[in-house]
Design goal:
about 325 residues, alpha/beta, Rossmann fold, eight-stranded mixed beta sheet, about 15% strand
Length: about 325
C-alpha cells in the first residue's frame, strides 16, 4: 500500500492505494481492473486495514484504496456543523475521483459499513457491491443489552448505553490481538496515536452515527438497484451483536456470513476477508454478482446476462462507457 495525501477544501485527507498497477479485471489482461475501497470503523484509520487490503490486492487482483476519514488516521477533521453521512461519503468520492478509479466494491467495517452503504445509495452507477461488516447502519446496535443497561438503564439510560458500549469494546480487545500479536500492534498503533490527539473532534461523528438509520436506503439498494450486498459478522461481536446482524438481514433480505472472532475480526486476521470471498458460498456468490455488475458498467456482456437487473442496464446507458 502506497500512502498519499489529498487536499480537499484546505483539509488534508490521507489515503493509500495498492501498488499493483498492472492489475486487470475478471475478463483477463487488457480489461479494466476491479477497484475496491476499504472503509474503516470509528476511532480507527485506513492504515489499520493495510494488511488486509494488500492481501485482497494479491489474492483477487483488485486495486484497493484505503481512505482515512476526516478526524481519523491523520486526516483533518470536518467543521463541527458540517458533519453528516453525506459529507463523509463526499470524502470517499473525492479520493475515487482523484485516483481515477472505476466503479468500486465497497468494504465497510462498523462505521465504515454505514458509509459504504450510503455511498452505494448515492452513487449506484459507481458501485459494484457492498461488503457490510459488523455495521452500524441500522438502529439495533444502539439498543444495548446486558448487565450494565439492566442495572443502570432505568436511572440513566444514555449513560448506561455508553458504558455498555465501552465495555463491549474492552471485551473485544483480546480477540483483536489473537494471532500475530506484534504485526497487529504495529498495524493499529500509528492510527490510534493520531486519533488520540484529536479525540474531541471525533465526537460529532459519533453523535451523528447514534442518530443515523439507513434502513430505508439499504432496502432500496437491494430492491430497486439490485446492488450485491454481503453482510459479514464476527460470531463474538458485542459492539454490534447478533440482534444487529439479524436486523440487517431482515432489512436487506441477505443471509449473514458468520466468521470467527469479535467486532474487529479482520484486523487480527487480515487474510479472512479474501478467504470468505474466494472459498465460501456466500462470498463467491457476491463476487459473481459484483463482477456481472462490473461488466455491465463497463459496457460488456455479463456472465449471467439473462439475470441482469433492468436498473443496471438503464444505468449503463447513462454512463460513459470505459474500455
Amino acid at each position: 500500500m502506497v500512502p498519499y495525501v489529498l487536499t480537499v477544501d484546505g483539509r488534508r485527507l490521507r489515503y493509500a492505494v495498492s501498488d499493483n498497477e498492472d492489475a486487470f479485471g475478471p475478463d483477463g489482461p487488457g480489461s479494466p481492473p476491479v477497484w475496491a475501497v476499504n472503509i474503516h470503523g470509528y476511532f480507527a484509520g485506513g492504515g489499520m486495514y493495510w494488511r488486509e487490503s494488500a492481501r485482497l490486492a494479491e489474492d483477487l487482483g483488485w486495486r484497493v484504496i484505503n481512505p482515512s476519514l476526516p478526524a481519523f488516521g491523520g486526516s483533518d477533521p470536518l467543521p463541527w456543523d458540517d458533519v453528516s453521512m453525506t459529507t463523509l461519503t463526499e470524502q470517499i468520492s473525492a479520493i475515487i475521483d482523484h485516483v481515477g478509479a472505476g466503479p468500486v466494491v465497497l468494504l465497510g467495517h462498523s462505521m465504515g459499513g454505514a458509509v459504504a452503504a450510503h455511498y452505494a445509495f448515492l452513487h449506484p452507477e459507481r458501485s459494484l457491491g457492498v461488503v457490510y461488516r459488523d455495521g452500524v447502519g441500522t438502529p439495533a446496535w444502539k439498543k444495548r443489552r446486558g448487565i450494565v443497561p439492566f442495572l443502570i438503564g432505568p436511572i440513566t439510560p444514555d449513560i448506561a448505553a455508553i458504558m455498555d458500549l465501552v465495555l463491549a469494546i474492552v471485551i473485544d480487545l483480546p480477540d483483536l490481538f489473537m494471532g500475530r500479536i506484534l504485526s497487529t500492534v504495529r498495524s493499529v498503533l500509528p492510527d490510534i496515536r493520531r486519533n488520540i490527539r484529536v479525540v474531541g473532534r471525533t465526537m460529532p461523528i459519533g453523535s451523528m452515527l447514534m442518530a443515523s438509520d439507513l434502513s430505508a436506503e439499504i432496502r432500496e439498494l437491494v430492491e430497486d438497484q439490485g446492488m450485491p450486498i454481503l453482510p459479514i459478522w464476527g460470531i463474538l461481536d458485542r459492539v454490534t451483536g447478533n440482534a444487529t446482524a439479524a436486523e440487517f438481514a431482515r432489512v436487506s433480505g441477505q443471509k449473514v456470513q458468520w466468521v470467527p472472532g469479535g467486532h474487529s475480526w479482520m484486523l487480527s486476521r487480515p487474510q479472512g476477508q479474501a478467504d470468505v470471498l474466494r472459498r465460501l458460498d456466500l462470498g463467491r456468490e457476491f463476487l459473481s454478482a459484483a463482477y456481472d455488475r462490473w461488466r455491465l458498467l463497463h459496457g460488456l456482456r455479463p456472465a449471467s446476462a439473462a439475470d441482469a437487473p433492468r436498473e443496471l442496464i438503464a444505468t449503463q446507458r447513462k454512463m460513459r462507457v470505459v474500455h
